[in-house]
């Protein structure tokens, strides 16, 4: 169980944001511009059609805007605090993660929890504003809303482990900025951040079904807009839960192997 001192790790990245008002203003402006552009784009795409790929205009717009808001859950500037795994590996300071009383895996988890809670405040505020402005549609029923919240929680859990795996790769590749950018792009593409997966070819959708990425965002948002019916919700939730278990075991193994690669002189 984490001590009160250990929970201070959860404030590392959020405090970096809160202590820099210009950065928060920039985030708010960028988020507003993204929402307006996405809303305009999808409304324009549906200007001369009623339903495409099984989605109506309102469903597509709601999905796209919610995807933008959901991206704020983990989109924080960790580089400003020089506390990313990639930076620690580059500067040889990753060893300090193993010299603290708090184990590195717990520190990483607490910091990620703080980032997601801070990001949730941004996403929830944006959602309420968009809902009041009529930009996004409300969930069709209370049951859909409840399933969406549960699915979103599981999706963020899966996303945490996916991002953890990407960071853990730094223990073997050390200087892999290009690889990290490619993997992040793949994660956003396959999770449906850029566009709903139903707009892609069948082979692409089939391939992504065997990967954990769509469980992070596509599934929760599909449940929200009604693209996945409630009758299929139990199966989708079980798939998400299975990915949580699989990735948890895999990352636990990687933490053990990563510790063997850390030496006392540095990363």
From TrEMBL:
The keyword Mitochondrion does not apply. Keywords: Membrane, Transmembrane, Transmembrane helix. The keyword Transmembrane helix applies. Pfam families: ABC2_membrane_6 (PF06182). The chain crosses the membrane at residues 117-136, 142-166, 178-200, 233-255. InterPro entries: ABC-2_transporter-like. It comes from the Bacteria. This is ABC-2 family transporter protein. It comes from Streptomyces venetus.
């Amino acid at each position: 169980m984490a001590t009160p001192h250990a929970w201070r790790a959860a404030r590392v990245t959020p405090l970096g944001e809160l202590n820099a008002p210009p950065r928060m203003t920039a985030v708010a402006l960028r988020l507003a511009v993204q929402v307006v552009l996405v809303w305009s784009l999808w409304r324009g795409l549906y200007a001369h059609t009623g339903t495409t790929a099984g989605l109506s205009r309102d469903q597509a717009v709601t999905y796209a805007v919610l995807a933008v808001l959901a991206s704020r859950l983990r989109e924080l500037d960790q580089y400003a605090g020089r506390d990313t795994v990639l930076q620690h590996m580059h500067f040889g300071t990753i060893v300090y993660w193993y010299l603290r009383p708090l184990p590195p895996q717990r520190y990483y988890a607490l910091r990620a929890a703080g980032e997601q809670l801070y990001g949730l405040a941004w996403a929830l505020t944006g959602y309420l504003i968009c809902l009041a402005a009529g930009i996004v549609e409300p969930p069709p029923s209370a049951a859909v809303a409840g399933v969406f919240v549960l699915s979103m929680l599981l999706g963020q859990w899966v996303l945490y482990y996916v991002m953890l795996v990407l960071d853990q790769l730094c223990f073997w590749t050390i200087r892999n900025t290009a690889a990290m950018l490619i993997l992040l792009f793949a994660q956003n593409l396959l999770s449906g951040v850029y566009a709903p997966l139903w707009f892609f070819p069948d082979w692409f959708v089939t391939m992504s079904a065997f990967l954990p990425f769509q469980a992070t965002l596509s599934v929760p948002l599909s449940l929200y807009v009604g693209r996945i019916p409630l009758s299929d919700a139990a199966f989708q939730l079980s798939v998400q839960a299975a990915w949580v278990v699989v990735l948890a075991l895999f990352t636990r193994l990687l933490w053990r192997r990563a510790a063997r690669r850390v030496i006392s002189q540095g990363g």
